[in-house]
Protein: L-rhamnose operon regulatory protein rhaS
Organism: Rikenella microfusus
Amino acid sequence: MDESGKSSGIGGAKRIIFGGVMNNDSQTGFYIPEPGVFPPELLVPDGTVRHDRNGVWVLMVCGGCARMEIDGIPHDLARGSIVALFPFHAIASGPLPDAFRCECLYFDFDFMSDFPLLFPPEISERFGSNPCYRIDEQGFARLERCFGMMRVYDRMAEHPSRTGITKALLFTFASELLYCCADRAKSVRTGRSEMLTDDFFRLLHRNYSVERTPDFYAGRLCVTAKYLSKVLRRTTGHTACFWIGEFRIKEARQLLRSTQASVAEIAERLGFPDSSFFAKFFRRHTGCSPVEFRRGNR
């Protein structure tokens, strides 16, 4: 597909490309491409890549067949296949056949931070260790209906409750997806680096609010902090310190957006020695001060 949106094929295959991930009407932290548009960052004809966004891509295969390699494991995709891609997943995929049809959505980890219900914690564990599932036709039809409603409200830029309804539908979609995958067997990874990376993120999800040093995670994983960061840099492009900081920033944003706690109280809760140190850390990661962030999200 060229810049005008037309498909260009070589040997009966096509690569679907669109300009940028967000359009002017996109909700902050949430995006559904137009039907038939595949995220260009996930098309990797040569080698592998990890998408560099702080969130999750979900792919629903509606027709045709294709192959995608995730963390070195090939997956044959056909109607009913669901793929959930986290930042630590290594992806390799070639050109897509003309008959391949796929619906996609992306959401930041922060998008649901102020939603009153929490995603079940087993979602990240299940899809982190096995990102691809085949859903039965009834379950897939329910997911398609929910996805269609998300698309409708995502396009209603002037609707006063657009974001709230989208979050409720996303929560419904994720809960239904977990239900559909509950009885599906998990794949087993053999790569030590990938297994260590998955185990690190599972620990981080559970402990980031109280444990903020690489030594803690390395100790729980029976490796040195230096080795853990070396593996994480190789598998994700970042060190353990980076990811711990990312999760702290995620919590800081949530507290600033959804509570009345003062900056000093939040700094203490997050383990910073004082509010000044916290403010410098926050600005370095977000480009604004905690006060500016809170003012812009009220």
About this structure: DSSP finds ten helices and twelve strands in the chain. Confidence is low (pLDDT under 50) at residues 1-24, 185-190. The domain at 9-181 is CATH 2.60.120 (Jelly Rolls).
